[in-house]
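Deliverable D4.2, example record:
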Amino acid sequence: MATLNKQTSSDKRSGPLGSQKNYNEIIELLDSSWSYAASTEKTIATMKALDQALDFPSKKLDAILVSGTNGKGLTIHFATKLLQEEKISFGAFYSPHILSYNEHFVLNNETISNKTFTELANEVINIAQSNEIAVTSYDIITMMAILYFAQNNVEVALLEMREDSPFDATAICHPQVIAVTRITEEQLTQKNDLSASVINNLLQLVKSDTHVISGDQSKLNLQLMAEAVKKNNGTWAMPIRKLAALKYPFEQLHGRCAAIAERICQIYVDKFAKDATILANSLLAKQKGQRGRPTLEAKRESELNPKKTLEQFWKEEASSLPARFQILDKEKPSILLDNASNVDAFTNLLLGIRLLHYQRPLKGLTFIFGCDAQQMNTEEFLRLLRYFSKKNSGQIIFCPIEENVPGINETSWNVEQITNDVKSLKIKAKSAKSFEEAFEIAKKSVDERHGLVVISGSKTIITQYWKLKGIKKI
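Output generated by the structure prediction step:
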């Protein structure tokens, strides 16, 4: 397990213990100190030691933890948009990053600058070294986020959990709300009692003032969560009855994530927000009923300045998560990026493509897949492709995962093997030696104006796309 404790060789090059590293030196240190081992009690002990050394920034935050298998980043993204509309200051911590470590840290919908990132990193790294605390890169960036948000006095911090575990580094923060997006079916088929195990482990974080919500669609999972919350004296804030009214076709794709985000923000505004002037104009807060008829002046004001509704808000809201899920319709041909890396997410992606085709018939469809062998269930993947191809024409190009992105632990499929498996289903498929080769083939295979190239299968292949387009890490 790679950790940062005493001076490493790169530390010695940049000066004595406690010296100020520049941005590039910090990136080099973080790249070399990643650990992919599961979090343990040692993780929390490390975070507590850092927290104490930094004067307990975790205790200065109202925290919302977002967990689950798919949709965590999108849920936080939607929640931040709502909080911005409510004029509530917030910090958002995303995990993992696609190109730059800066992506982890968002303050009031502004990504952290290199200068601030460097200052925060130096503070956390030097504290760890001077107190001889052995830390991994994930420990460092998690504590950087907590410190950043505390220093900026945010009203609420939304933290994406890397693992559904009470030992995840984010669990050092006491959560007002825990949101579980969903636990995928492929996880649950591994072992009959895995569902209960995952849920009980995660919900050990529930305290008497913690509200818990979930977008999971399994009645059994929801029942297990409700029982675990009750056992820990928390509040089970369910059910979520309908999808948020996003623009077509995103309501069907991401309406559940948006609905979870809406419930997160409603709970925060109703139970924890402190500014009464904000609540008076809130989209989310429960307004007290007015007694008697409104005055003529109140009627006139209402007509001149009609209050925005939640439905209007969702219809106007952009429904993509930049760099991770995005439709680039200004490109020729159009590009759809989706970091789907398991069957559950892939099912949603195929639904989205069908809906886009209904909206505007596609003249050519090509998939580029660079899949994570650890996550994508090959048998289920082939079954979904076969069903999709019966009603939709297109071709598939498989390419290897070539990048090594710190924080993303992905292993490439055997490209030749999966290509042959797909061809055996009478689906048009070919292999490419690199993403660059696959992308050039794909662009030529569809209509420049009305065609669509879909790039998916892993987080790493999204990184490969942005790097090919000249978007650099630093």
